[in-house]
Amino acid sequence: MGQSRLESLLQLRGSKVQLTLSGSSLSWTFQKRWFCWGRQGSTVSVPVNEIVKVHQGDTKQQSKTTDGPSIYFTVYHISRKSAQRWTLEASTFTAHSCQEAHDWVTVLQDRIQNCGAERPRKLLIFINPYGGRGKAQRIYSNKISPLFQLSGIEEEVIETTRANHARDYILETDLQKYDGVVCVGGDGMFSELLHGVVRRTQIDNKVCENKEGAMLTPCKLRIGIIPAGSTDCVCFATVGINDPVTSALHIIIGDTQPMDVCASYHYGELMRYSVSLIGYGFFGDVLRESEALRCLGPIRYDFSGFKMVLSNRFYRGTVEFLEADDSQSSPKDNTRCRTGCQVCSESSERWKEERDAEFHCCDSEMWQKISGSFVAINVTGMSSACPKSMDGLSPTAHLADGTADLILVRECNMLQFVRHLKRHTNKKDQFALPYVEVHRIRAMHFTPEKLDEEGATRRRKGIFSSLCGAPPETSSWNCDGEILDCAQLSVRVHHQLIQLFARGIEGTSCSR
């Protein structure tokens, strides 16, 4: 029947409804009745691409074929319970005949297949039974697997037994039969999939990823995240909520969100990939300090953070960075990256034109240089928002525009730094402080320097120096929760290197 309009007067839960399929939308309007007040005249509209499944029969007959002699047909579709939270809802309609029910099922199934999104048929799923709150297996078995089975997705499930198990499996397995890889866990588990998929793509395309100048091949295999970790920052910043069912529904309907990836290099050799935080100084020290406190669980980060605030350490060095063209966007422009972001969608052509000129140009004047003492140097390719910090490190960072935000917190006293940290949670402008600056960049180099005698003496005489221990001459880098045990580092942004099963955060582009 193509894209023609289809209408029928049917029944839904005992009420008469006018069911209409028009273009890319299915809607039903409750008919007005003089003795019924509730939903009369109201209309429910569902985008076709948010219909999970249609079958002939009621909810108790979902395993039967659509050829069954039933006047019922059920539409399983996404329902929004809040701004970002999705649930699965089943609406069973009563037709006048079995043939009418069959016709509706046939037309809807055909329209779903041609709605544009490529839905996964087979997924490779990794479950981390130990990460975060240790609930991953139960979350998957009770909430996620039934949804995948309902939608007809074939699952191949692997429960990881060691660090980098998922990464190594991806590197060694034939991935042609899968439409995506999914992790059930936290940000650490996602990082394993990120490294496995990116590295495997480069191997398959004969690209040497270990050199800083390599032009990496974008990955076609999509990555899904079922949040079951401690913070689930990547999921929160790309979906807007850490809810396993919502994430599973994004996977089922085949949502796709391209994403930039930052690559970190030490003297030209690849160290790690990241999509969120690369932090030197405060966040590097917090991570290193927390390693000795793993027995405390997630609370170890709070304890280590409190200790590092008291120690008020700062490190000297030189930051060189290649600033992005600020005519398209700026870290201070107040525009949030949301579903269908125009900045990200328009970046592809601009990136192709600019990347060779930027990364291979010998003109050193294109690079800016800042030297000094810093409490924190942070690079983030996304907002890095999480439930504890709804705006994140950089509220207006974009997911897929080929840039990252460089945040420099210069030497300041403890109370000033606490003021900066508090602005991550109270929605005040965290960059409107004289000792904080932010730049939208495409690449960055950091070279550490030793503190002069005056600086070293000043740090030793800090109020809490003796309590918190002697500070080291250099910090470490926190790369998405993994320690890079080096101080010199280069960072380069790779434009839309991976694809997630997501659509970005739904909502307006400006939230202030």
Automatic annotation (TrEMBL):
Q: Name one Pfam family in it.
A: CERK_C
Entry's Gene Ontology cellular component terms? membrane
**Top-level taxon:** Eukaryota
Q: Does the keyword Transferase apply?
A: yes
* Keyword Transferase appears in the UniProt entry: yes
* PROSITE patterns (UniProt xref): DAGK (PS50146)
| GO MF assignments | ceramide kinase activity
What are the GO BP annotations of this UniProt entry? ceramide metabolic process
Q: Which UniProt keywords apply?
A: Kinase, Transferase
Coiled-coil intervals, chain numbering:
none
Tell me where in this chain the DAGKc domain is found: 118-268
The protein's matches in InterPro entries, at most eight in alphabetical order, are given as: ATP-NAD_kinase_N, CERK_C, CERK_PH, Diacylglycerol_kinase_cat_dom, Lipid_Phosphate_FormReg, NAD/diacylglycerol_kinase_sf
PANTHER family in UniProt: CERAMIDE KINASE, SPHINGOSINE KINASE
Query: What is the name of this protein?
Result: Ceramide kinase
Q: Which organism is it from?
A: Xenopus laevis
> Lineage in the entry?
Eukaryota, Metazoa, Chordata, Craniata, Vertebrata
